Amino acid sequence: MTTTDVHPSGEQHEITFGKQRATIVEVGGGVREYHDGDRPVLHPYDVTAICDGAHGAPLIPWPNRMADGKYRFDDIDYQVDLTEPEKHNAIHGFLRWRSWNVTDQGADFVTMAIRLHPMSGYPFTLDVSTTYRLSNDGLTVSTTATNLGSSALPYAHGQHPYLSPGDGVVDGCSLELQAETRIDTDAERQLPTGLEGVAGTPYDFREARKVNDVQIDYAFTDLTRDSDGRAWIRLTGTDGKTAAQWVDAHYPIIQVYTADTLHPDRRRRGLGAEPMTCPPNAFQTGEGIIRLEPGQSITTTWGVRLEG
């Protein structure tokens, strides 16, 4: 391999099914692109670029923000590095910039895995594997975490795909998210301050309507679910096609982000739709944190497809 073969996101693993194709990357173990035919379903980043805005990455062992990087678990206080220093937060866990390994692969699926060894602030051993699979139901993403240590550990999961509007920006798209409640945050550090019903607010997308110039970077909860236990978020582009994403019952929260803080060339060109097993700052508050006992595993699943 020459230096010109080394991409910022590492090795590229393409999977296909019919007209669908997705590329899963070594760095962060995330999905860099997902197309159905010529139409992007997830907004991509270029193979020559560094992943921006956590595009497609698993967020482990916690998603979103942790105030001051501090938490308490089983009566012990822990401190992790501040990865959002300007806001004095730790954000999106430990695995975004680490190399993941392929443990199984076929034409239409790939399994990426990594072991998180004990470290300062998180002295636990966690095995993680994420399987990306294409089928008639689109792209399905299942993540299994296993506690390999001798004591219980705190765990949460999120992932950071961006639904694609097709061409252009999200402003002209219609958004549907049947969520009754928004988790409000402060402007300075984006930490939770309370709950607000979406009715009568600019954030009510229970019936599909245009995004227009609304800026969103909030977690939504109290999700309506279908008979299969799936909650959905749908972004319909001006071409009439819909990037439709679902989350299973392990995810009570979807964070929606209109990407207003990305580089101007990337701003509002995809809609962050982040499944989360817990709310922001959960490691500190304990809300929604999954306690994994020694040897215990948990699998969480979400998916996305093109409709219309």
Summarize the structure.
The protein is built from 1 helix and 27 strands. The mean pLDDT is 97.
SSE inventory with pairings:
Layout: E1 12-17, E2 20-25, E3 31-36, E4 39-42, E5 58-59, E6 65-67, E7 70-73, E8 76-79, E9 89-91, E10 101-106, E11 109-116, E12 126-135, E13 138-147, E14 153-155, E15 158-159, E16 162-163, E17 174-177, E18 179-185, E19 192-197, E20 209-210, E21 217-223, E22 231-236, E23 242-247, E24 253-257, E25 271-276, H1 282-285, E26 290-292, E27 297-307
Antiparallel strand pairs: 1-2, 2-3, 3-4, 5-15, 6-9, 7-8, 10-11, 11-12, 12-13, 13-27, 14-26, 16-25, 17-20, 17-22, 18-19, 18-21, 21-24, 22-23, 23-27, 24-25
Protein name: Aldose 1-epimerase
GO molecular function: aldose 1-epimerase activity; carbohydrate binding
GO biological process, one term: glucose metabolic process
Task: Describe the structure in your own words.
It comes from Antricoccus suffuscus. This is Aldose 1-epimerase. By secondary structure, this protein is mainly beta. The protein has a single domain, classed as Beta-galactosidase, Chain A, domain 5, CATH 2.70.98.10. A nine-stranded antiparallel sheet has the order 10-11-12-13-27-23-22-17-20, with no helix packed on it. The longest helix has 4 residues. It is globular and about 55 Å long.
